[in-house]
Amino acid sequence: MRFWLDWLASTTDGHFSRSGCHDEDVPRLLAAPDKFRGTLSAREAAQAMAEAALEAGWECDVAPVSDGGEGFLEAFANAVGVGQRSWVPGPLGRPVLAEWLMCRPDARSPDPWAVIESAQVVGMSLVGGPEGNDPLSAQTTGVGRLVAVAAKAGARQVIVGMGGSCTTDGGLGAVEALGWHGPAAAQIVVACDVLAPFGEAAAIFSPQKGATAAQVEFLKRRLERVAQLYQERCGRDIRNLPGTGAAGGLAGGLAALGAQLVPGFELVAERLELAERVGRADLVVTGEGRLDRQSFDGKAVGGVVGLARAAGVPYLVVVGEGDEDLALDHVRLTERFGALRSRTDTARCLKEVVANQLARGPGE
Q1: Which secondary structure element, helix H or strand E, spans residue 177, and what is its range?
Q2: Residue 17 has pLDDT above 70, yes or no
Q3: Which of 17, 135, 179, 337 has a CA positioned 20 to 30 A from the CA of residue 54?
């Protein structure tokens, strides 16, 4: 994590210009992409956009975004904080070195606060994808341990990003690791990337994590028992709460301990003052690896587009792949450059698309 903290610390609030200060006569691009999963992180995608802007004589405000999943930490890179690393149990029991962020007080948080990305602990990449996962055994114990570490280090608010997990344990591992109660001196805020309730986590998401049809049925029944256990021991019925199905029910487990659940993109947008930065831009560029209908259901790209539309600022959406029947205009790299180049040379493809748009003009 330190490499991207150092990278962004070399700028002022993520703002790039050739002179180092803003010239009102120079047009400004806001680079606010999510990750291009499997090819570029959100930070790397934003950097490609920034290079295109600078070469075209534009300034660029860099704001990688996230809805709570992979890349959540990157979205907070301009916070005044220190990158941390802690060893915790991974999803299948082997230790993982998870990165997290301890931040100093600011205008929104008068006390120290921390940011945790659950994908750092239980992400699909840690088990080699669905093929390497054991969907019945994968546990969230390490997430609970990391929350406890952050609280012990002095954080009074611990923000936990959901998404990209290989687990469907309903957060039971995390709850047990926290001793069936939240940290005494810290509030947990859960940034959800989906709206699915707890009871639907297995049916909707576990097939993507390698679960067979029979395992899906087993996981559904297990989640029902876990929800009942939470109600008995914590006094909270979390089964139908929106967002509790995030990260295989991890959000629901933390909610049972009293955590506050919030839409991940909205939290990131508020912390980044994204609406204000959109309003100062002449063009907003966003994108992700794959655009589909879910991209507009609380996800980052749909959120950025919504802010641009509300501000009346032109926007460009560039994606690796995308459904053809979507109402939103977007550029698909696979269509323009072919599947091979778009996946092996993604940054240059992205830079070329943005450069072509700037040559035509932001509203063209």
Answers
A1: helix 172-177
A2: no
A3: 337
Per the structure block, which two tokens stand in for 28? 């400004």
**Angle at alpha carbon of residue 100, lines to 229 and 38, rounded to 5°:** 90
Query: Residue 38's pLDDT band (boundaries 50, 70, 90)?
Result: confident
pLDDT at 364: 61
Domain boundary among 234, 266, 298: 266
> Residue 293 gets which letter from DSSP?
G
- Side chain identity, residue 132: G
Q: How far apart, in whole angstroms, are the C-alpha atoms of residue 315 and residue 336?
A: 19
Q: How far apart are CA 202 and CA 37, in angstroms?
A: 22
**What average pLDDT does range 266-294 have in this prediction?**
92
Q: Which residue has the tokens 């029902």?
A: 224
Average pLDDT, stretch 94-106? 94
C-alpha–C-alpha distance, residues 296 and 308, integer Å: 14
**Separation CA 15–CA 184 (nearest Å):** 38
Are 85 and 61 contained in the same domain?
Answer: no
Q: pLDDT of 118-158, one tens digit each?
A: 999 999 999 999 999 999 999 999 999 999 999 999 999 99
- Same domain for 308 and 166, yes or no, is no
Name the percent of the chain in helix, strand, coil, to the closest 5: 45, 20, 40
125 and 249 share one domain: yes
Q: What is the pLDDT of residues 152-162, one digit of tens each?
A: 999 999 999 99
Q: What is the CATH number of the domain that holds 138?
A: 3.90.1510.10
Of 221, 239, 266, the domain-final residue = 266
Tally of structural domains, the chain: 2
Give the residue numbers spanning the domain of 140: 74-266
Asked whether residue 186 falls in the same domain as residue 227, the answer is: yes
Q: Are the C-beta atoms of 114 and 155 separated by less than 8 Å?
A: yes
Question: CA 8 to CA 18: how far, in whole Å?
Answer: 16
When pLDDT is cut at 50, 70 and 90, the band that residue 2 belongs to is very low
CATH number of the domain within which 318 lies? 3.40.50.10350
